[in-house]
Design a protein that fits this description.
4 domains, 13 strands, alpha/beta, elongated, single chain, 21 helices, Rossmann fold
C-alpha cells in the first residue's frame, strides 16, 4: 500500500492523531495536501515561529503557543473538514497540558472529520500517548519520482537516456531536496550535467547514509579472487552474478534473497560480503544491529523501518549484517517491554516477504545465539558453513596475501611449507602472521623471509585451539545437514563422506 493510499484510508477511518517521521517536510506536506484535496478537506499548517499560515482567517493563530494551536480544532465548527499539520510538535509532547489536550482531542475527533498530523524528523512519543498516535512511514522517492525531478532540473539540456538512467539509479535512496541540491551544484559548477556528476551524487549518498547513524556505505574494492578457497561458495555466487539483470526478470528468475555465513572469526565471511558487492557491481550497506535500538518508545521500531526503507530505496544493493548473532542474541522480550522481540519480528518478516532486490549477507560466529526463526527456510537462499581452511586453501590464502605484499618476490617464499606448518590457522591469523613477519624483517633492515613467517606463526596461538569446543559444535552442526559447506574439500567434508559410506 502506498503512502497516499494508507493516508487516505486513515482520513476516511477518522484516525484522530497521525505521526509521520520524516526529514522531507516539504515533500510530505505536498503529499498530504493532495490526499486532503481528494478527501475534500482543508489543510491548516502550524509551526512554532509563525503559527497557522495557510488560512487567512487564522493567520498567525497559535504563534509561539502550541496549546493554543490545538485549541483551534475546538473553535472550528464540528462539521468543518480539516487536516492540521503541526511541524516539530514532538518537542512539546512531554508537556503535561499538551499531552492531556491531545488525549482529550483524540476522543473528540473520533466523531469529527478532522485529523492532527505531526510531521517530525524523528519519533519521540511519550509512553502515555503511544495508544492515541498512529505512526505512518513516509518512504523515500521512487525511481519514477526521481526521474521526473531529474528531467525537470535538466530542463532543455540535451541528455541521453543512458545518463538519465544512471543519474536516477545513483540518486535512489536520497531525498528530493538532496537530489536537487547536488544537481544544481553540478549545473552551477559547469553549466550542465555530465557523466562525472554521477560521482557527486554517490558522495552525497554516502554522507546521507552516514547521517542516519544506522547504516554505513562501504566502498567495495575486494574481489572474489581475493578470497582463498571457499570454492563451493564462490561457484554459488558466480552463478548468480546476473540475477539482478532485466534478462533474469524476463527469464522468470526471482531476485536472490541472501546468504547466512556461519563460522568462526577470521575465516573470510566479511571479506565475502565485500567481494559480492564488487563482483555484482552493487552498493554495499553495512548494518550494525545494535544501532537499531533506541531509548525512546517506538524509536527502535522506527529505526528498523527506516533501515528497511532506505535499503529498498537503494535497491538493487547488498545489505551486510556483520555478526548478526550478537545483535539478536537471547531475544525473549524481557526487560525492554518487548522492544527487541518487535524489532526482530519486523526484521525477519521483511526477510521472508521482501520483493525488492536487496541481497542480505548476514554473518554469524555463534549459531547457538541465533533465534531458530532466523534459520528457517525462506529467510535466506542458503546457509553456508565457513570452516577453517585446508592446506590447499591455506596455500591459496598465503599466495593472495604475498602477491599483494611482494608481487615480484613471490617465488622467494616456500608457500607449500608455510601452508603445511600452519594447521588450524584461519585466514585472518595467516594475515596477522605475515604482518608480524614483516615487523621482524623491518626491525633488522631487510626483507622478511619464509623463516620469519614460520617464527611469527610459532608465537601465535590460533583460535582453533582456544575455542575448540565452539568449532567442534559448528562442525557437527554443519555435518548434520544444517548448512552447505563453503569449501569443496575440507576435513569436515571428508568426515561426512566417511559417515555416509559407513
Amino acid at each position: 500500500m502506498s503512502f497516499a493510499q494508507e493516508f487516505q484510508l486513515l482520513l476516511r477511518a477518522c484516525y484522530p492523531l497521525i505521526y509521520i517521521p520524516t526529514l522531507e517536510e516539504e515533500r510530505v506536506e505536498a503529499a498530504i495536501a493532495r490526499c486532503a484535496k481528494a478527501a475534500n478537506r482543508m489543510v491548516y499548517t502550524w509551526d512554532f515561529v509563525d503559527g497557522y499560515q495557510d488560512n487567512p482567517n487564522y493567520a498567525g493563530f497559535g504563534k509561539r503557543n502550541p496549546l493554543q494551536a490545538l485549541e483551534l480544532l475546538e473553535k472550528l465548527p464540528i462539521s468543518a473538514l480539516g487536516v492540521f499539520i503541526l511541524r516539530d510538535f514532538h518537542r512539546f509532547l512531554e508537556d503535561v497540558s499538551i499531552a492531556r489536550k491531545l488525549r482529550n482531542l483524540a476522543r473528540l475527533l473520533k466523531s469529527q472529520p478532522k485529523n492532527i498530523v505531526i510531521v517530525s524528523p524523528q519519533i519521540a512519543i511519550p509512553d502515555e500517548l503511544t495508544e492515541v498516535f498512529t505512526v505512518v512511514d513516509f518512504p523515500l522517492p521512487t525511481a519514477a519520482e526521481i526521474k521526473i525531478e531529474v528531467q525537470r532540473l535538466l530542463n532543455c539540456q540535451d541528455t541521453g537516456d543512458k545518463l538519465i538512467a544512471e543519474l536516477v539509479r545513483s540518486a535512489q535512496g536520497l531525498s528530493l531536496e538532496r537530489i536537487r541540491r547536488v544537481l544544481t551544484r553540478a549545473i552551477a559548477s559547469h553549466g550542465k550535467i555530465e557523466q562525472e556528476d554521477v560521482q557527486l551524487i554517490l558522495e552525497e549518498k554516502r554522507q546521507s547514509i552516514r547521517q542516519t547513524k544506522i547504516l554505513d556505505f562501504y566502498p567495495a574494492t575486494e574481489q572474489i579472487s581475493d578470497i582463498g578457497g571457499l570454492d563451493n561458495l564462490k561457484d554459488w555466487l558466480l552463478r548468480r552474478g546476473g540475477a539482478f539483470s532485466e534478462r533474469a526478470r524476463t527469464y522468470g528468475l526471482p531476485h536472490p534473497r541472501g546468504l547466512l555465513l556461519v563460522g568462526i572469526q577470521g575465516t573470510g565471511k566479511s571479506l565475502t560480503a565485500k567481494a559480492i558487492a564488487h563482483h555484482w557491481h552493487l552498493p554495499l550497506l553495512r548494518l550494525d544491529v545494535g544501532r537499531l535500538f533506541g531509548g525512546l518508545v517506538g524509536e527502535s521500531e522506527s529505526r528498523t523501518r527506516q533501515t528497511i526503507s532506505l535499503a529498498e530505496a537503494l535497491a538493487p544493493c547488498i545489505l551486510w549484517i556483520d555478526e548478526i548473532d550478537k545483535g539478536f542474541a537471547g531475544i525473549d522480550g524481557k526487560g525492554d517491554s518487548g522492544t527487541a522481540s518487535r524489532v526482530f519480528g519486523t526484521f525477519i518478516n521483511w526477510l521472508a516477504e521482501k520483493k525488492s532486490p536487496v541481497f542480505v549477507v548476514a554473518t554469524a560466529n555463534n549459531i547457538r545465539a541465533l533465534p531458530p526463526e532466523m534459520l528457517r527456510k525462506g529467510r535466506f537462499d542458503e546457509i553456508f558453513f565457513v570452516g577453517l581452511p585446508t592446506q590447499d586453501e591455506r596455500e591459496a590464502i598465503f599466495t593472495v596475501h604475498l602477491s599483494r605484499l611482494r608481487p615480484h618476490n613471490l617465488k622467494n617464499y616456500d608457500i607449500k611449507r608455510l601452508a603445511y606448518e600452519t594447521p588450524d590457522f584461519s585466514g585472518a591469523e595467516i594475515e596477522q602472521t605475515l604482518i608480524e613477519a614483516m615487523h621482524i624483517g623491518f626491525s633488522q633492515n631487510r626483507d622478511f623471509t619464509t623463516d620469519d613467517i614460520l617464527e611469527a606463526a610459532s608465537q601465535l596461538v590460533p583460535l582453533a585451539r582456544t575455542a575448540s569446543e565452539q568449532i567442534e559444535f559448528l562442525q557437527n552442526w554443519a555435518a548434520a545437514g544444517k548448512a552447505r559447506l563453503a569449501s569443496r574439500e575440507t576435513p569436515l567434508s571428508s568426515r561426512i563422506h566417511r559417515q555416509l559410506n559407513g
